[in-house]
Amino acid sequence: MLNYSITEADFLYRRFSIKDEPNYAVFWKLVNGSKVPSSAAFKTKQNENGLSVNIAALTTPEATVKNSKEFGVAEISASTPIKLGYLCKHNPQPENDAHAIIVGDTKPIAKKLSKAITQVFRF
Amino acid sequence: MNRSISQKFQPSEDILLISGSIVDVMINFRNITKQATPVLFRANISEYAKLSGKVSGFSNLQSNWDSYDAEVISSLAIKTAKKTLAHLNINGLLTSQIEINVFPMRDGGIQFEFDGENICAELEINPHGDSIFILFDDDGNMIDKWQLFELSELSIILEDAQYA
To answer: What is the ipTM of this complex?
Structure first.
């Protein structure tokens, strides 16, 4: 597949865990009665070369979620990482043509990414 | 009622008030040292139990629990998170106006989030049990970041934010 050039007009999908008891891997918190996503879902591990996402223009939330009992999908605008100086690079995988990476250590911008969520998909 | 049992369980000066989920505990140290004065602290048992249970639950997470190759949560991070929670509880900070949440981290650590009118912050406990405090502005921009060596540093920051 040809490389897709991600611009500020694009949207990106990131799966997030919704598993509750007994593991409590839930990436949500309640602030003033509203569900707000945690930045923990957007932090790279040490030695990771970036944060895995899917390009919305090349896939669907349904295809991104894989297992809807354990995961939801958050949508963010690619303009958020791009404006913060991060490169968003198409990185197709054998079973996922829509795969992309927000290149670099995303810990410093994870809070911004979590606040920039435009839509959440639960199935 | 059996007199000895009734005497044994008679509320003493050491534990005074229980009201709902909030327990006001008055510890009178007169029996320990004559110089000490009574200390009052407020502990929120239900909130502490909820968050502590959540932290314990992180130990059940298998590797790749987020589908993006997340690590198993380290026992050191769990231990430090529990100590942190106990410290926050003893200092009455689980009853404050600051919302406190805990999340597993992808690298095997645990993250606390603090949200209040005057504070937006995170405490990252890495897999080795080290604690990093991060302060943000309302838009999520990082203002400052430093390592905490004593839990008292955390309670001072949160108390300052609470009464700012």
So the answer is: 0.91
- More confident site: B18 or B101: B101
Give the separation between CA B97 and CA B88, rounded to whole angstroms. 13
Give B-chain residues touching A40 at CB under 8 angstroms.
Answer: 103-106, 111
Chain A neighbors of B67, CB-CB under 8 A: 15, 17, 66-67, 70-71
**Min Cα separation B112/chain A (Å):** 10
- Supply the DSSP symbol for A96: B
Amino acid B24 reads D
> CB contact, 8 Å: A21 with chain B?
yes
Contact flag B65-A17 (C-beta cutoff 8 Å):
yes
DSSP A25: -
Express each pLDDT in A72-84 by its tens digit: 999 999 999 999 9
Q: Which of B54, B122, B141 sits opposite A39 (nearest CB)?
A: B122
Q: What is the rounded CA–CA span in Å between residue A112 and residue A39? A: 8
Q: What are the strands, taking DSSP E only, across B4-159?
A: 17-19, 22-27, 39-44, 99-104, 110-116, 119-125, 131-136, 142-148
Q: Looking at the complex, does the CB of residue B61 fall below 8 Å from at least one CB of chain A?
A: yes
pLDDT reported for residue A53: 98
- d(Cα A39, Cα A56) in Å, to the nearest integer? 20
pTM for the model stands at 0.82
Determine the residue type at A33.
G
pLDDT digits over B19-75, tens only? 444 444 444 444 444 444 444 556 788 899 999 999 999 999 999 999 999 999 999
8 Å CB contact between A72 and A100: no
